[in-house]
Every structure is written in structure tokens, then in C-alpha cells.
Amino acid sequence: MDKLKIRFNFVHIDFDKAITWFICLYFSNGLVRLAARRVLSVARLQSSYILFANLIIYMPLILVLVLMISKRKIDKSLWSFLLVLCATVFFFALTLFFHPDYDRFFFRETYGAWEDVFRPDSGAVFGFLVVTASRNSRRLIENLKYASMLLLLYSIYQFLKAVSDGYWTVLNAAGESIEQSYNLGFGYTVIFCATVFFGTFYQGKKKNLSAVRLHIHCAGFSRGIQRLCSLSSHFWNTLSF
User: Fold this and answer.
1) What is the reported pTM?
2) What's the CA gap between 90 and 28, in Å, rounded?
């Protein structure tokens, strides 16, 4: 599969490049949308930023899928993804059959099934594809480092904006914008970046990552994030590459 390529006017796009592009944009789609909105607003085309951003974000996914089915035999990771996707749809449908009143939770615009499970740029099933399509664990970690760098840039922007405004603007379960003194989503994003950066830095040394816990605790994030940090420390201390 590593030898599979697509040729576009002397530009060679192999599977490794496509999956790197896909992973980076999957995790940092918020940064892409922000950049697209700001750039197009200068040209007074801000109404088209959603279409433009989706084109950038979904293109690597299309390339990955094309490369995965371009062989005579479909790749195993694609079969695994399709199996998980079908099973997820089946269990959602089965749940709705027995509990039709759950539809208001599944089909709501914010925190609904589409956004959190099935959406290609943020859904969990496509996160599964990200991992299974990256057969080389070292290459996967490298790609996560690139994605974390982009994600960290977006997090810094969010943090500076919140400091400037004096509050965080978040969406509640009803999809309404509200002002809060904290943002759980931001905290989980930071701990993801910290886990990747500290994990790769301490890779092979198996040192305790208690510094991450201390940093998150001092930043005032939730206890859940502190516990997640403890688990990530244990994970990197025991993982061998």
C-alpha cells in the first residue's frame, strides 16, 4: 500500500502523504475553518468559507479512500472501517427502534450523532479510520505530532481570545452560545497535545510525566482532565515502540 500513488501533473501523492494530510486536518479542522474565514473575509467572500474549508479538509479523505481501493484487493483497514461504520449505524437504528424518544439527542445540531460520530472531519468512526489506516505506529506518532502542532496553534488563539474577552464562548446542549469562565473542550485539546509532545519527548526513557499533571492542575482545568493526564502518563511509561 505504501507504493500506491496518484499522479497529478508531475505531483506524486502516495498513501503516506495522503494519510498525513488527512490526520493533520482531521484534528485541526477548527484552525482550517478559522483561516479560511479570515482569508476569504479579506476578499469579501466570507459566505463561501464553509465550502472552501470543507474542500480542503475532505480532499485528503477522498485521496486516502481512493488509494485504499485502487488495488485489486481492498485494503483490510478499509474493511474494518466499513464494518465499524455499519455496526454503528445498526446500533443507532436499533436504539431508536426501542427508544424513539432518543431522536432529539441523536439528531440535534450540537453534540448530535452526526457531529460526534459520523462527520468525516470530527466523527469517531473516521478517527478509527485514522488509526487503522496508519499501519506503521512510528509514522502514526509522527503524524500526530504534526497534527498537535496545528492544534496547539488553534488552542493558543482560543486562549488569547478568551483572555481578551474575559470569558469563553461555548455551545450548550441546546446549541446556544453561552459565556463561561472555563472551557472543557479546550482543556481536553491541550491535554491531547501535551500527551503527544511529552510522550514523544520521553519515548524510550520511560520517565514520569507528573509535570503535565501539575501544569494542567495549575491551569485550573477539570478533575476529569487531571485523571486523563494520569492515565496518559501511565500509558507513555508502559508503551514500547
Assistant:
1) 0.72
2) 29
